[in-house]
Here is the input.
Amino acid sequence: MYPTRILRAHHSPKPNITGFDPRKFARSAGQPRYDPWERAEAWRYTGTFSRWNRFKGAFPGLGIATVAFAVYLGYEQLFLQDDHHDAHGSEHH
Here is the structure.
């Protein structure tokens, strides 16, 4: 850390020469009574664009692919067993 930064850290902030304090202005403003853009923005979070629907749409086809893969694994396990295994691991036909 530079010595100048250490010295600046101990001093109070410089006064604003305009006299305008943005923090004081924000505190006095409070919450707006009416948001003119509220209706225009409401559609983004309802219906088709709700959080759950946006999440579902992020992975199209994942559900059907998972089910199809599970069915294939079950079919392979039940019907595609290799019946002639050798005890030593070598293949003899």
Summary: Residues 50-80 form one domain. The CA atoms of residues 17 and 56 lie 54 Å apart. The helical segments are 3-10, 22-29, 38-42, 51-56, 62-79. The longest helix spans residues 62-79.
